[in-house]
Amino acid sequence: MAFDVLAELDAHADERFTPEEAYAWCKAYTKDRASNFYYAFTILPAQKRNAIYAAYAFSGYVDDIADELTDRSRQEKEIALARERLEGCYAGSRQGPLFIALGDAVDRFSMPQQHFEELVNGVEMDFTINRYETWDDLRQYCYRVASMVGHICVSIFGAKPHPRAEEFATSMGIGLQIVNIMRDVKEDAERGRVYFPTEELAAHGLTPEDILACDYDERFRSMLAAQGERAHRYFRRGRHLLPLLDVRSRMCVNVLQGVYFELLQRIEERNYDVLSERVRLNGREKASAIARLWGSAALLGPARSG
């Protein structure tokens, strides 16, 4: 982990930061940790962009507690501290660059506290759960760790009224998380985690132990193809969110979902071999995709009520 957010927060906990300095810290963290997201955010107006940096930094902070720490007692201590810091942030007690920036963003955009709390709940699932029996079980995890980020973004962007707006945001997040799961099979297996429902593995003649062994065969291909079909369904539903956003917010969100959709297509083109090499876009491909996705989002028509 190049940018040790846990150490950074402890080191800066008692320092005073202006909101501008705090946002700059969140911006640096986002750029270091997730260049895909960082460049997608650049199209936004300054206040929305800063708020997204702060929200993303919080997401990365709690995610690192699950993924970068291996001692269970340390994980539990750090997640409890994250909850305490979040509660203090909403109560007006803000220390360190992350929570000074997040607090300012909360004041400006009224981001619901429960969205962040649910995100923490999802991350905490990784401490105790490394198998999921059914899709409903896994969907709850995806909803918490990914859809909540989508709902936080919408609270910053603002959206036109629509009876299914929340459903669209939820679906987009779940689609992204399915692609994450498909791409990261090997990395998750190294942590002892299997994010495919056990009953769906069985339908393809697989067990969780087969996934931990990272065996690439026809059973694995057919199982991953079924996950890809699910991701496509969620992406199709989630894209209905785009016309509900203003043009620059829409361009940002289209990059986020579009890059992950391209990763899904790469996985399909490789016949679902995500084990021999990590599926990614290189710098030139990423820049080309961002430009194309910005352009296509700008040309979208108005939202429909159906």
SSE diagram, text form:
Elements: H1 5-12, H2 19-33, H3 35-41, H4 46-67, H5 72-91, H6 96-109, H7 113-128, H8 135-157, H9 165-183, H10 185-190, H11 198-203, H12 208-213, H13 218-238, H14 247-269, H15 283-298
Helix pairs in contact: 2-3, 2-4, 2-6, 3-14, 4-5, 4-6, 4-7, 4-8, 5-6, 5-7, 7-8, 8-9, 9-13, 9-14, 13-14, 14-15
Written account of the structure:
- This protein is mainly alpha-helical and 306 residues long.
- It has helices at 5-12, 19-33, 35-41, 46-67, 72-91, 96-109, 113-128, 135-157, 165-183, 185-190, 198-203, 208-213, 218-238, 247-269, 283-298.
- The longest helix has 23 residues, at 135-157.
- It starts with a helix and ends in an 8-residue tail after the last helix.
- The model has no long low-confidence stretch (mean pLDDT 92).
State the order of secondary-structure elements, H for helix, E for strand. HHHHHHHHHHHHHHH
Largest sheet: none
Question: What is the number of strand segments?
Answer: 0
Unreliable stretches:
none
Fraction of residues in β-strands: under 5%
What does the overall shape look like? globular
Helix content: over 70%
Q: Total helix count?
A: 15
Mean pLDDT: 92
How far apart the termini lie comes to 44 Å
The radius of gyration over CA amounts to 19 Å
Based on helices, strands and strand pairing, what is the structural class? Answer: mainly alpha
